[in-house]
Design brief:
The chain is an alpha/beta fold. The chain folds into two domains: about 10-130, NAD(P)-binding Rossmann-like Domain (Rossmann fold, 3-Layer(aba) Sandwich), CATH 3.40.50; about 145-350, P-loop containing nucleotide triphosphate hydrolases (Rossmann fold, 3-Layer(aba) Sandwich), CATH 3.40.50. It contains twelve helices and twelve strands. The strands form two sheets. The protein has a six-stranded parallel beta sheet with strand order 3-2-1-4-5-6, sandwiched between helices. Helix 2 (about 50) links the parallel strand 2 and strand 3. The protein is globular. The model is unreliable at about 355-378 (pLDDT under 50).
């Protein structure tokens, strides 16, 4: 993980729950063999599986020393809090880890490597501070280059933050790879980067260059894949995180969208005390398709639902209801498998392929001085 084999301790003190420890849950779901322990004194003695539904027998321990005894050689911060700062009560744990020579992996907006005290302690003990959210030095400008790709570019879009956009993309990647498809995952957030060992945290890139950075990542991924799955971020209707969602739409130039939603959620996740109603899913879909079409038309081909709050019969009914409502396959890819959603992507890929049965779907802009493109037949 991130440069070398590791056995990580996931720091999730007082917040090891599915809604709060997003990064820890992602690592446990996709890289559990590399996790030595989870640190949360309020749930010590249990297992990851018991606490968050994934991770199997990975133990939950009460402190860093217990995690080291379990074999940890690195500390990974397991949350992505609003504001992105280091919780003050965690500072002593991070300092202690560095004193023990453990590398510290952080996805926070605040870069631990820029903290004079922590950097000094790390240097004195031969430890590394790995800030995966640190943006690249390059500053490309997007220019619709991804719209010309023959690969099918798929973007997961959400009704809100933290509804399962990364998970849906990774489950689809796993299913398509099992079918022998040439598929690539483009990580755009800190957890995705830790899982995939590559990518860019797009919300840390200056706004003018965010779409360009994603465009470059998609172009690189398309060299090795026929289907490129781009991890979505934010939500167009969220007043705090709409910008990053729009940058992804216009940088990736997707031809297909997978709509992601946490079943049962009716309000957007806002700062504490604020309440903002969530639009109906049909409006969320329409907004995403309209915004995409400003650069390149995209169709919603499937819906990925998070049904963790529902009993199985209710979850299956919710999937069937959303499929009827949206007119596309809908399901919980973690709970019920990603097969139907992957089928939809394969069909979209066949329509995109030159000579496929579908309408041409690689619109191109015209260069200055060139004649207008001929209008497509309906």
């Amino acid at each position: 993980m991130l440069g070398r084999p590791r056995r990580v301790a996931l720091l999730a003190e007082q917040c090891f729950h599915p809604r709060d420890a997003k990064t820890a849950v992602g690592i446990l779901r996709y890289r559990a063999p590399e996790v030595a322990a989870v640190i949360d004194s309020t749930r010590a003695g249990s297992t990851a599986q018991q606490c968050v539904g994934c991770g199997g027998a990975v133990p939950v321990v009460g402190d860093l020393d217990a995690a080291v005894r379990a074999g940890a050689d690195s500390l990974l911060l397991g949350i992505a809090p609003q504001g992105g700062g280091l919780p003050e009560q965690w500072r002593d744990v991070v300092r202690r880890a560095l004193e023990l020579g453990l590398d510290v992996i952080s996805g926070l907006h605040v870069f631990l490597g820029d903290d004079p005290e922590l950097a000094r302690v790390a240097g004195a003990h031969g430890a590394l501070l790995l800030d995966v959210r640190r943006p690249p030095a390059e500053r490309p400008i997007a220019a619709r280059r991804a719209a010309a790709l023959e690969a099918l570019v798929v973007l997961t879009v959400g009704s809100d933050c933290n509804v399962g956009k990364m998970t849906a993309a990774l489950e689809l990647e796993r299913e398509l790879r099992a079918r022998g498809r040439r598929v690539a995952f483009v990580a755009t957030g800190q957890t995705g980067i830790m899982i995939a060992d590559h990518g860019v945290a797009i919300d840390a890139v200056a706004a003018d260059f965010a779409a360009g950075v994603i465009e470059r990542l998609v172009l690189e991924a398309a060299r090795r894949a026929d289907i490129v799955l781009v991890e979505g971020q934010g939500a167009l209707h969220h007043p705090g995180y709409s910008g990053v969602a729009l940058s992804l739409l216009h940088g990736a130039c997707p031809a297909a969208l997978v709509l992601c939603h946490w079943e049962g959620r009716t309000e957007l996740r806002m700062a504490e005390g604020e309440v903002f109603p969530m639009p109906p899913l049909r409006e969320v879909r329409a907004a995403a398709e309209q915004a995409a079409a400003w650069v390149r038309p995209a169709a919603t081909v499937a819906a990925a639902l998070n049904t963790v709050d529902l009993e199985e019969p209710a979850a299956r009914e919710a999937c069937a209801r959303r499929a009827r409502e949206l007119g596309v396959p809908a399901g919980d890819p973690v709970r019920f498998g990603a097969g139907p959603l992957a089928d939809a992507l394969v069909e979209a890929r066949e329509r995109l392929r030159p000579g496929g049965s579908g309408r041409g779907s690689r619109p191109r802009g015209r260069r200055r001085g060139s004649a207008p493109a001929a209008k497509e037949s309906p």
